[in-house]
Amino acid sequence: MEADTVIKNATIVTHDRTFKGGVAIRKGKISAIAEEAGALPSARNVIDASGKHLIPGLVDAHMHLHYPHNGLEPNLQSESQSSAAGGVTTIIHLLLTPDGLLKNAEKFVKVYEDNGVVDLNMTAAIFSEDDVAAIPDLVKFGMPAVKFLLPYRGAEALDGMPGIDDGILYLGLRKVAELAAKGYRVFSRVHTENVEIFERRKHEYLKLKNQNFQWGDVRDKICELDSLAHCIQLARMTKCPLYVVHMTVGEGPEMISRARAEGVNVTAETCPQYLVLTKDEAYGRILGKVNPPLREKWDNQQLWEGLKNGSVSVVGSDHAPCKKVHKKEFWTAHVGMAAVETMLPVMLSEGVNKGRLSFERVVETCCYNPAKIYGLAPRKGCISIGSDADLVMVDLKKKVKVKNENLHTQADYCVFEGKEMTGWPVATWLRGEMIMKDNKILAKPGYGRWLAADVAP
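^ that's the sequence the OP posted. Answer follows.
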């Protein structure tokens, strides 16, 4: 049967093998895979990928589409386009709307489907007992997880958002554990930082005459290590599947491995910025401000090792498209940075091309594992017959000097500005349609779709 598109002569990389071959696409799905071009069906559109690699579309497990607030509809367009340009075809957005979670989720999906260009799933932040009670409805809606923002309360609370305490965390973990015990494939995401320790350190640093220090000095790794141990213990006691977001500390992978050996169901994620940047980089103490903070080279190295040995399972961007206007002064600057469009280039340039990580492991941690963990596989994150034809063509030798003006995000700076990276996505397909070619977005706003996770028992 004739295909819509055939991509031939590629080096295909999946989470478990690399081979020369091609794929056929029909009605938005992968309809054939062959190692010989002659074994592929005829097609109206044939693309020769000689010299290029073909991988599944990335599933970005950690996305903040609308933070800070830059106008919802323009933001959904620009940040989903930035995703497509970076080879990301599915994003997991965090819904930040205290109370009325299900109603607000439905509203958000409607607006997104009018504006986004890549596919969408979500998790929701939990702030109250009412939110905890809503968790089963969120799961039925298609969300595989909820999130607990532990360090954002009191003076550190997000705008318009109430803080949570250990009581809400405990109730939420218990509720998720109840669903897991019934066979639902659900888990709890935790941002592990102890805000009380941070507040005391902050007061000490505010008194210093010399204010020339970094955010990572104030918000020291003790905040993250203490909270990580605390959350692992609560997960152990409640029997709740736990997912640790944006791990930054080099001690973390060993803590995760030890907890797993003791029977705790815990998964760890890190981000490209925590693999290659340090707190003393030249772009500055304010533009590089993020929670948790950037650390030291030793932490970078240990996180790479964690990805290599499997103690760290997922790479997500933690994309938060801050602008310079949001970062005018050290203490009041918004935390966060745009990161989705440079995620794959970082993993290719600093991981694959520098021998830190195999290409298969990059695909596993950026595509397959997040799709599987978030209930989206085998539809997403795979190159297999019947999967969505979400594909990325990569030129592993392409050298690009990063310039923010060439990125698609609303953010007006990039922490990788001027850095030359080797390895870059040159085309992206979503459900069989080419949505990016040579850094040009081809998809129209509204092509992206809500994708409910498969979490039912």
